[in-house]
Structures are given as C-alpha cells and as structure tokens.
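Hi R.,

Here's the chain you asked about this morning:
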Amino acid sequence: MVTWDAVYPYSRDRGFFPKHFGREGLAPHIVNYILFSDAYSDSSVKYFDVTSFIDKRKNALLQYKSSLSEQEVNDLMDEIKDGDGYFEPLGYTDQLF
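And the predicted structure, written out as tokens:
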C-alpha cells in the first residue's frame, strides 16, 4: 500500500511535500502506468527485456551478502533467463482507475 500511495496521490499532489515548493526542478508527476509485479499468473502479464542491465542487477543483488548467497542470486537470474536473454514478467495495466 505504501508504494501505491507514493504513486497516487503523493507524486501528484504538492501538499504532501511542501518543502519541495521552492526547489528548482521539482514538480508534481502524474503516473499513467502501473506495473504490478505479483501478478505473474494473470493474463495481463507482459515480459520486459532486462538483458541490457542484467550484469548490473546481478552485481547489485550480490551486495546483499547477509540475505542472498551467490547460488541464490544465480538461481534468481536463471528464473528469468530465456534463450540468450533475460525477461522479467510483470503484471501490467494501463488504467489507474
């Protein structure tokens, strides 16, 4: 729910972050698309090609040494590997309401 609140209404409504009013380059943002990552079995699942930054992703995950072993990180990478590429399945909707 916190993530949803950050998307709507917090990112849109200036009243949530009054200290940002005077800062250059900060403006409200309207979110038009939401990706729900827990909807893998839904018919709305889309696969996003993450091959171009898979090494960066793997290296970032390897930094969580107390949470993930190298084998667990490799297993996570194997789960999204398809042929020569890596594809992240995400539930997708193009309607906020």
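The two ends are 15 Å apart (CA to CA).

Let me know if you need anything else.
M.
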